[in-house]
Amino acid sequence: MKTAIFAATLCILTASASLILAAEAFDFSHWKLTLPVGESGAAEGHPMEVQAAKLTGGYTHTDYFYKGTESQLVFWCPVTGTKTENTEFPRSELREVINPEDDNVCWAAPGTHLLKARCRVIEVPSTQKVIIGQIHGYSGKAKPLIKLQFFKGHVEALVKENASKGKDLKLTFPSVGMDKEFDYEIKLQDGLLSITINGSTQAVNVFEKDPDWAKQTLFFKVGAYTQDNEGPATEGARISFSSFKVSHTEGTTPASK
User: Partners of 118 in the beta sheet?
Assistant: First the structure.
């Protein structure tokens, strides 16, 4: 039985549509948002989560998630932001949800899975590090398969060779510079993980590195995951996205935990 194709596409607006609200320009129907602020609005407690229904209804946040110039989508994450469990760093980040009613439903690793984006790193913390895209494992002790990190004007892919432990394999790409728009692509195709930055591609077969990756269920993440937690509230990471697109091909099997 063929599996339905799931695709979420965020498109660049034309100049004539520059005043359209973010929710009208972007398709948030398969995403949820985590903000670096507590649910009460204070910088403590569990980080605020905004579900797909609210995002598609036009949700924006003045400080952390808003429309920039030319209708770009801007994520701001201060180093003082509220943190999610099992991490030491804050985030303003979208998390892919195949079924908006059930976070347990993710995609199985076999098949073809693609994230394409165009973004601009406007501001970084003192560490100069911010994660701008991920593939993350879902089950119990799952690790991020890949974290795409901006560091000192370069983009580097931090690939977890082992599904549950071990250090990252680092793939470094040519400089893209600060406050300059660039394209990136993360693609997982039957175990072959390829990363492309402005047309430059590197790849590694993660199923060969660790067959356990083939058993994982996964999801994409996009936004500003600040790799710093020290400094004033004015320090952090600010990223704007003019477009991004996630797709999963036929033959990909959505899977529950």
Answer: 183, 243
Strands 6-10 and 200-205: unpaired
Per-chain mean pLDDT for the chain? 87
User: Residue 133's closest CA among 249, 241, 252?
Assistant: 241
Do strands 168-172 and 154-160 pair parallel, antiparallel, or not at all (unpaired)? Answer: antiparallel
Cα–Cα dist 214/64, whole Å = 35
What CATH code is assigned to 6-255? Answer: 2.60.120.200
Pair 121, 227: CB distance under 8 Å: no
Token pair, residue 244, equals 């991004």
Q: Give the C-alpha separation, 79 to 189, whole Å.
A: 35
Domain residue ranges in the chain? 6-255
- What is the pLDDT confidence band of residue 207, given thresholds at 50, 70 and 90? very high
Confidence band for 247, pLDDT divided at 50, 70 and 90: very high
How buried is 107 (Cβ within 10 angstroms: 0-12 exposed, 13-18 middle, 19+ buried)? Answer: buried
pTM above 0.85, yes or no: yes
Q: What is the pLDDT of residue 255?
A: 55
* 215 secondary structure, DSSP code: G
249 vs 3: CA distance, rounded Å: 8
